[in-house]
Structures are given as structure tokens and as C-alpha cells.
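Hi U.,

Before I forget, here's the chain from the pilot set. I'm dumping it here mostly so it's searchable later in email.
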Amino acid sequence: LCAGSAQELFLQHCAEIIVKACRVHVKAVRKEGVDSIVMVMDRLMVAYPAHGHQLLQPVILGLLKCVLNNEETDTPTYCLYLGILARAMLCNAQHFLSTLQLLSQEAQHEVNTLLGMILDIWSSKLDNIGYV
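Structure:
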């Protein structure tokens, strides 16, 4: 996306708008719209590994809740959610863990239990992830 001071300027001016749009629309649009939102989130996390995950924490927290509560019924969309969570884990494992800790306090589960649940869901959907 941007490099150096342009990166900070971009984040300063656009981050809040991008996060708000992702948060509002990620679960309210059709599969095609989710594809676009996930692509934006993915680009942010890859381009800004130190800050992208932190900016997207409310969205990632919402996706974690959606996945763990099995709120999404459309398998391709569900797999996109799992894909963005995997990207979040890969781009910034420490921040993903802190997000998981927030959720564990809210859900009153151990972090390891939640992570195990996510991995179980991911492995059960593995065949479908390649489809997406």
C-alpha cells in the first residue's frame, strides 16, 4: 500500500474509516461483498503487520465470535472468515493472542480452549477452504 512516512500518513487519515467500514459491513453483505472486505483486511494486515492487526482488532474480535458461535451458514463465507483469522495469526501472532485473551475473558473460557475450538472448526472446514 504505502511505505515510510506515507504509510503513517495513510494510517492516520484512513485507518478509522476503513476499520469502521469493515466492522459494519463484514457480516451484513453478500458473499461477493465479504470477498472485497476480506481483501481489504488482508492487504492491511500484510502491508502493516505491526499496526494492521491492532487497527482491525474490533473486526477480528467480531469474526472470532461469529466463527465460535457458528453464526455464518454460508460455507464459502465462513471459510473466508477462517482465512482472515489465519492471516491475522500469521501476520501478528502476539496481537492475535491478545485479541483471543480479550475474548476469553468475555466468554469465560481459557485461551487454549478457544484456540482449540478455532482449530477444530478450521480443520472441519479444511476441505472447503480450497474451494474459496
